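pls read this protein.

:::
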Amino acid sequence: MSMFDLPRPFILTCLFILGSCFGSFLNVCIHRFPSRVRLWDQLKSLNSHGSGCPRCSSAILWHDNLPLLGWLLLLRGRCRQCRQPISVRYPLIELMTAALFVLVYWQEMPLESSWKSSQSIETSGLYDVMGPQTITGLWDVPVWLHLRYALHMAMICGLIVATFIDFDLRIIPDGCTVPVMILALVSAAAAGQLYLVPLWFQDYSVAQVLRPSFPGWLQPLLFPGSSVEFAAANPRLHAILVSLAGLIVGGGIVWTVRLVGYWVLRQEAMGFGDVVLMAMVGSVIGWQPVVIVFFVAPLLAVASALFSWLARRDREIPYGPWLSLGTVLLLLSWRHSWPVAKRVFDMGPLLICVGLFLLAALILSLQLVQLIKRLMGIPLHDTGQPATDCWTSADHLTFFNGERPDEQTCQWPRPLWPGCRSGRGLGNGYQWRQGRPD
């Protein structure tokens, strides 16, 4: 009996406990990453002093730091020293992380426990779970499934940190994206097969129809079926190429939308943090799944954008959380969503034409939005400048100093501490007018 033959309820219970511990660590990352700018400084901040109360700065005892139990039973939501309330978000993040550890394992691990390394996905009945794959014999099936699960959970942890920081500050630090990206590339080189979908494939009939009309330099893209001989012969190189292609396509799509949005709207449409976030997601799951995530995320963000505009008249929303949510939903629904999406990716080289068409449609839709705003009298560009008719405290001080350049106007001169005039920037002017110091 191996560790993979343990009862599933026992494994899920252990994963829930492990996930809650990781959730506690993610709370530390969410709190400390934004205070540092550079990646190395963000990572070093995790090794600094222990956690403390943000109000009274008293150290939190180790037993009060127990995931979920510390907040619920020991502290009851309040600091042990100052008795001020502790945000409920901390245990919720721990609970969410623990739940995702369990749900992703439940979806990605089939119930069969007696797979042989010589079996292929099609013959072992795992095709609906995994999608098109190539068993190469580098690892036993349960081993590389668990390795892939570990990589996916590392990505989800990074997405959780990026989500809550983006909600709070509308930034995505490199500390929650770049390390996972590097881990994905290293894992691909070491393990070989951790991807969801091979690098390239298309339907056999599409390849046969397009082959006569394609130039010779595109002929290598027109191979039949979904089994890639190159992947079987060079598993590690193929896995690295899958990870690199996902990194380039994931970051490139968002970068293209960012440039097009700035060109049409004359303002930043998406932040650079979103570019790095999607590059990280693509390096883990591959370029085809990351394209699916990119088209799912706007559907999830529509309701949030409408609520933000109606409630606060705010036309900007953080987009990173919706990219993260789309990624998690894709992993949880992979066995159901991939058979539908596969019909699109079966087109092979025709996807290039589809991509160009969608880019043109994006440009036209943004131009249409600008036209509608112009007809309705809505400002085309948000300059970010405050209203000119708003009287601020700075305006009041400027007016007061202009009306009262000398506090002894119309009065007999009297001794006054020089710091009073110097603090208002009037000391030198007074000396010049009086011809003497105070």
